[in-house]
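Aim 2 progress update. The chain analyzed this quarter is reproduced below.
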Amino acid sequence: MKLVPGNAQHIGSRRQQQDAFGFSNLANEAFRKHGGMLAVVADGMGGMAHGEIASRTALKTFLDSYESKTETESIPDALLRGIHAANAAVYQQALTMGAAEEMGTTLVAVALLENRMYWISAGDSAIFLYRDGEFTQANSSHVFATVLDEKVSQGVISRDDALAHPERESLTSFLGIERLTLIDRNLRPFLLRENDVVLLASDGLFKTLSFAGMAEAMQEDAQSLSEALVSRTLAVEKPFQDNITVVAIRAEAERASIAAPESAPAIVARPSRRRSPVAAMLLVAALALAAGYIYYMFSYDPAKRQSRDNAAPAAQPVREGLPLDPAATPPPQRQPGQNPVAPPPPEREFVPAPEGKDSFDPPVAKPRLEGQGR
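Predicted structure tokens:
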């Protein structure tokens, strides 16, 4: 399976770009054989100090940590080690800047190895799977709304109270705290199918653009759909539009061409005892010439030959429709529509690889309530 990435980003109406995103080194083929492709999005928390520093610190640390993965370390373990390293780096940076517990960022990451997907996240940035025209959120968002909605289902509070709660959008987990305990991840891989799209996004996308609006862009290639999602979000013209970051990875089938044979087998003529028709014709011609020569020798009359030589030459007959001198008449010019150039041979057909079978289904996405915003 071929994984094709794309990305797009916009500052929105904010004064700073506090989102950060990145990929592992895709040119390192040796690492990709066991580490796959890593994609990361971090959203610095705008309500706290130095959100842009927090997101970039987390991104760099996470990428560096994951790329130190060995062949024997599992992908889930490498992701877990990476997010703890990123959290420690952001927390240490906050201490250095005198902003302990006041500097933070969300982080979502996916590692894709062939058709297997692993993820890890902290905060409210999202990992979506787009399949067969529908979106599913793979990770769980760490917001207080989850706790409130659970209390609604238990009958503890009303739905109206849950929607009106002032802390509804407060994060319950993020990077930049002393101990990171609330992490969402999968241990068993989710198997991708052909045409699946994995989407990593900061909340500036999905808190403005509906799933229906997002779906209109999902038929494009990974880069085009990333740019289209950002453009559609900006077209909403939402006041105080947050930073927007989109990373898309489309799963495409590896299409192998039908290989032509290296060389056509040579056809070797085997000798035959049957006489060739050409040889027979040559033999008949030779016999005819010999008979003519004998007839000429016995019927030659010098007097008759001399009278024929002095006679005027007879007019040469002309075949109807052909010029006397073919070279004197140019060939007719090709007219439009006549004798068209032969079309090129058809392109070689491609045969898709057989589709794999899922062994694990992603969690069902909980519907996101309207009117949310941080």
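Residues 277-299 form the longest helix (23 residues). Confidence is low (pLDDT under 50) at residues 257-276, 293-374. These observations will guide the mutagenesis experiments scheduled for the next reporting period.
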